[in-house]
Design a protein that fits this description.
The protein has two domains: 71 residues, no CATH class; 126 residues, Rossmann fold (3-Layer(aba) Sandwich). Helices cover 44% and strands 13% of the residues. It has ten helices and six strands; from the N terminus they run αααααββαβαβααβαβ. Strands 1, 2, 3, 4, 5 and 6 form a six-stranded mixed β-sheet that branches. Strand 1 and strand 2 form a beta hairpin.
Length: 211
């Protein structure tokens, strides 16, 4: 699977910089490094680099510090949870046919949000606690396709406990971006609903009940 690239549009938008500056960034010597950022730390560095290039270092520092603070709140709250108590999570980018999501950005965020990212394994081998599905199709079509697609996963804990989640907003969890803190918060509230309530189930995700 192709490695998702950093969304420069999201960073320019967050820094309140005209999107026309994108072409300027593409011709810098730093472009190759920051376009491949896929961890929170590398995204903070990318934001600061972009802020320096576009002469807005203070605004970039403020953005990076805000994102880091929000993610650190999650990390600190979950730091004492043992690995055996963390939910095993499998992601699908599509269900008809079934396509697993296996990129490094997701794996990094899952770790921070207190989960264990599972890829390339069958339902019998993995028995995930949660299934998370990215949806780029109309919800009505996805809800029609899901029961058949999940039939081979019907014996897993995720399906048995109705812990199947649909990310229906295309602006989140698709690629590294200035929304990295939002993405982490979304996963944290799905993984640990008793610990975190960010309210993103109102606009980004929904719980699909198999039974």
């Amino acid at each position: 699977m192709q490695r998702p690239l950093l969304s420069l549009h999201s960073i320019l938008e967050a820094l309140e910089i005209d999107a026309a500056c994108l072409s300027l960034l593409e011709h810098t010597s730093e472009y190759h490094d920051f376009i491949h950022a896929d961890t929170p730390e590398s995204i903070y560095r990318a934001i600061r680099t972009i802020g320096s290039i576009l002469d807005t270092p203070q605004r970039a520092d403020q953005l990076a510090e805000n994102l880091e603070e929000r993610i650190n709140i999650i990390s600190h709250k979950l730091k004492f949870i043992a690995d055996e108590n963390k939910p095993k999570v499998t992601f699908f980018r599509d269900v008809s046919p079934t396509v697993m999501a296996e990129d490094g950005y997701l794996a990094n965020l899952v770790q921070i949000a207190g989960g264990i990212h599972q890829t390339g394994v069958s339902a019998e081998e993995s028995n995930p606690d949660l299934l998370i599905i990215f949806n780029e199709k109309p919800i009505s079509q996805l809800l029609t396709d899901l029961p058949r697609a999940l039939s081979s996963w019907s014996q897993t804990d995720a399906v048995a406990n109705n812990r199947i989640y649909i990310i229906h907003h295309p602006g989140y969890l698709q690629q590294p971006s200035a929304r990295v803190a939002d993405d982490t918060e979304i996963l944290a509230e799905i993984f640990y609903p008793k610990y975190f309530v960010f309210g993103r189930n109102e606009d980004v995700w929904m719980n699909f009940e198999w039974q």
